[in-house]
Amino acid sequence: MKSILLLLSLTISFNLFAADYQQEINKFFELYKKNKIDEAVNSIYSTNEYVSAIPDQIKNVKTQLNALKGLVGEVHHIGKLDTFLVGESFVYVTYLATYDRQPVRYEFQFFKVKDGWRIYSFSFDDDLTEIQNQARKAAWASKK
């Protein structure tokens, strides 16, 4: 009985912490879909007070993300591909957004601190090589 309660307690506490980073990602995409790109970038980086030390890099991310619409068109769908937990203190979350012209991958990395989760890295690109390789492996595995 004690082990069940402990397991339930750990599951609930992890889910509360997980909700922290997932809420930040959700907030990012809500702002993004409203074309509030700068606010979305500020929002995702707001979890890490040390990011203010690299304002040029943040400005560069905003510039690139603002230019994306002109390159790929309107966003149609945003969906989570996977969440990869590394131990109990690092998480890697991948999303895929489809646009008029092509899909774009978004990656969020968070690390755990005593009061929740903090953004470690945010990136986006159109390199779907890893996704294609995994799809090929799955396709071949299903043929066996």
Structural account:
- A 4-stranded antiparallel beta sheet has the order 1-2-3-4, with helices on one face.
- It has helices at residues 2-33, 37-45, 55-72, 129-143; strands at 75-86, 90-99, 103-113, 116-125.
- Strand 2 and strand 3 (103-113) form a beta hairpin.
- It is globular and about 50 Å long.
- It has 4 helices and 4 strands, in the order αααββββα.
- Mean pLDDT is 86; it is low at 2-17.
- The longest helix is centred in the N-terminal third of the chain and has 32 residues, at 2-33.
- It has 144 residues and is an alpha+beta fold.
- Helix 1 (2-33) runs antiparallel to helix 2 (37-45) and helix 2 crosses helix 3 (55-72).
* Assembly state: single chain
**Number of distinct beta strands:** 4
Q: Which percent range fits the helix content?
A: 40-55%
Q: Beta-sheet strand percentage?
A: 25-35%
Task: Count every helix, treating DSSP H or I runs of 4 or more residues as helices.
Answer: 4
Terminus-to-terminus distance: 43 Å
Low-confidence stretches: 2-17
**Shape field:** globular
Order of helices and strands: HHHEEEEH
Mean pLDDT: 86
**Class by SSE composition:** alpha+beta
The major pleated sheet works out as: 4 strands, antiparallel
Q: Enumerate the strands of the largest sheet in spatial order, edge to edge or round the barrel.
A: 1-2-3-4
- Using only CA atoms, what is the Rg? 18 Å
